[in-house]
Amino acid sequence: MAAPLVLVVLAAVTVRAALFRSSLAAFIAERVEVVSPLSAWKRVVEGLALLDLGVSPYSGAIFHETPLIIYLFHFLIEYAELVFMITDVLTAVALYLAVQDFNKVVFKKQKLLIELDKYAPDVAELIQTPMDMHYIPLKVALFYLLNPYTVMSCVAKSTCAINNSVIAFFILATIKGSAFLSAVFLALATYQSLYPLTLFAPALLYLLQRQFIPIKLKSKSFWLYTMQYASLYLCSLVVIICLSFFLLNSWDFIPSVYGFILSVPDLTPNIGLFWYFFAEMFEHFSLFFVCVFQINVFFYTIPLAIKLKEHPVFFMFVQIAIISIFKSYPTVGDVALYMAFLPVWSHLYRFLRNIFILSCVLIFCSFLFPVLWHLWIYAGSANSNFYYAITLTFNIGQILLISDYFYAFLRREYYLTHGLHLTRQDGTEAMLVLK
Amino acid sequence: VCTSRFWFNYRHVANTLSVYRSVKRLGIPDSHIVLMLADDMACNPRNPKPATVFSHKNMELNVYGDDVEVDYRSYEVTVENFLRVLTGRIPPSTPRSKRLLSDDRSNILIYMTGHGGNGFLKFQDSEEITNVELADAFEQMWQKRRYNELLFIIDTCQGASMYERFYSPNIMALASSQVGEDSLSHQPDLGIGVHLMDRYTFYVLEFLEEIHPASQTNMNDLFQVCPKSLCVSTPGHRTDLFQRDPQNVLITDFFGSVRKVEITTETISLDRDLAAVESKFPKDELATEPLKYAEQLPVAQIIHQKPKQKDWHPPGGFILGLWALIIMVFFKTYGIKHMKHVF
């Protein structure tokens, strides 16, 4: 399996190198869908230049990256293109290995459940076989590397690529079962952008499952393991934050990075939902609505944890998708990360109901974004409402995609345990409805 | 400069024309006056007495006579045009009458009236000039040697805010009201139907009517015009940027064009050495040493390049801590036995 992966990696690197050399690089680097105030390369360069002039990069509202990024790019700024290409490749390889391991886990679990007779007799066609699952890791790497969103993110040198790679390594560490590494990478991911905090729950659930610790609130081993994992995570987070203090000898980065993410002062349009609302809101409501919008991101964790406690990796997928839809400054790079996982659930294809219309919506909206931006900003014949409409449609498309996958997943699980041909009490065929 | 349009701002046009009239009467020709009126009151369809602009009720004084030459009229009175006139950045096609052709020996009087607020003056109900812009324009004038001394009079609400930001030398400023106060208008004329003048300018006009080209009245008297009892608002003035003592500044230095002419019958040969000729001129009352233009620009600082800053390096403790952590994580995951592979 290594050879096709190497081939895919080479193809991806070629595409990116070609785009870097072309004139499109400058055009893509300033598109608001690809870069946000949090991840723009222009701002990283500006911050490092300010540092060279002896000024803290966090003074003023330009630079919102964490000190570790400053450290990374201080030495690597000459090779920035290479760094981003390598980051993408690393992410893809991490995802590849993670999904490979995950497939083994799924297969083992399936075998166990078949032997325990937990499945209904007529669900043979729903069971995944190793033959089907053989190419999934390659497809995941392919989906990530050759996704136009990822390519654009890489060409724009958006630091979203680094966020994605940290999250990918976190997923790899979790699936391999190493609680320590998983906690360290989760702390790094949270440190980079605040939202991966919500990935704590699925990671914990997966590790508990791996250790065969039942998830009961009364169980002592459950609480013990949770405390261990939580303390590992919190300690590493604290250590990383304290270490960042020593880079510039100031705590300036906390309001600049986390305060910025949470309070959304910059209302540059992006593909998210925050900017339009807050542009037209009265000042005295903005605090309330900022809180509402931010809680919206974190809110789905607990209900999903309760519903999906047997399937933590799917939970992780849904959680990553929710983060990238509802975060304060989303870019297409975040979208690319969860889209990379779609091949893992390709066995759900027969249960997806809206996949055609949703893919059409997503593709159309991706093309309409630059068109309406041009009409609004340059031609002056549209206004922000047009762009906002496309943002809304794009996000609705994403949300429907996730909920479609969610429904398909649950439906498959139900069929697995209750049989494919459901009948009501009186013998007629029954329909499964998501309540 | 009158900056307001519409019939009910009749008084602003009347204010400006009153000062214009005084200034012309005291000897300054039209070629040396730039008059900007934002609206036409004399020929306004609502004017019951066409071709006149009165400044006193009972129609005692028509300030719109036969020889009023308006240089910027109606929509030409904009902030941009005003600043261009002041700084001289005018397109080459502008006629001479629309230019301020001053040099470094000219004393300039600027009178502005209209609606204003704290720090701004409204032009034509659509734009504003701020006190900062005005101060910067005056500084440009100073650096381009477009004035010797400048007297700035403003009659608007909160007029004192407009001269707060001046920082160029040789400027004296008067305003009709302090920050937070409104300038009020004088009586209305029931025959015309609007207020004819603003109080401050009314009393300034009364004061100026007493001045003739040879009068020795000085600026301190102008400062006393329109006390609070008559004007309701408190007029303000600013003289800290002015080199001479206001006591010694004649009104006619700004409002009139007065030349001291001495008739002599002896022949004077104009030779290179002008020292003998200079002693005939009255001594300047400059107490401080005259400001030279060259000192305005900090040339020494500009020419001197700043030494390049040293590049920033992350502190050693940080690098040490980071790599120690990374190595710790590495060995915790993979175990100590792999150390021999590393080394």
Automatic annotation (TrEMBL), chain A:
Its main location: endoplasmic reticulum. The chain crosses the membrane at residues 68-99, 166-187, 193-209, 230-251, 257-278, 285-306, 351-373, 385-407. Pathway: Glycolipid biosynthesis; glycosylphosphatidylinositol-anchor biosynthesis. It comes from Sapayoa aenigma (broad-billed sapayoa). GO terms for biological process: attachment of GPI anchor to protein; GPI anchor biosynthetic process. Pfam families: PIG-U (PF06728). This is PIGU protein. GO terms for cellular component: GPI-anchor transamidase complex. Keywords: Endoplasmic reticulum, GPI-anchor biosynthesis, Membrane, Signal, Transmembrane, Transmembrane helix. It is a multi-pass membrane protein. It is found in: Endoplasmic reticulum membrane. The lineage of its organism: Eukaryota, Metazoa, Chordata, Craniata, Vertebrata. Belongs to the PIGU family.
UniProtKB/TrEMBL annotation, chain B:
One of its GO terms (cellular component) is GPI-anchor transamidase complex. The lineage of its organism: Eukaryota, Metazoa, Chordata, Craniata, Vertebrata. The chain crosses the membrane at residues 312-331. PANTHER family: GPI-ANCHOR TRANSAMIDASE (PTHR48067). Keywords: GPI-anchor biosynthesis, Membrane, Signal, Transmembrane, Transmembrane helix. The active site is at H115, C157. Pathway: Glycolipid biosynthesis; glycosylphosphatidylinositol-anchor biosynthesis. The gene is Pigk. The keyword Glycosyltransferase does not apply. This is GPI-anchor transamidase. Belongs to the peptidase C13 family. Gene3D superfamilies: 3.40.50.1460. Pfam families: Peptidase_C13. GO terms for biological process: attachment of GPI anchor to protein; GPI anchor biosynthetic process; proteolysis. GO terms for molecular function: GPI-anchor transamidase activity. Heteropentamer. Part of the GPI-anchor transamidase complex, consisting of PIGK, PIGT, PIGS, PIGU and GAA1. Interacts with GPAA1. Interacts with PIGT; this interaction, via a disulfide link, stabilizes the expression of GAA1 and PIGK and links them to PIGS.
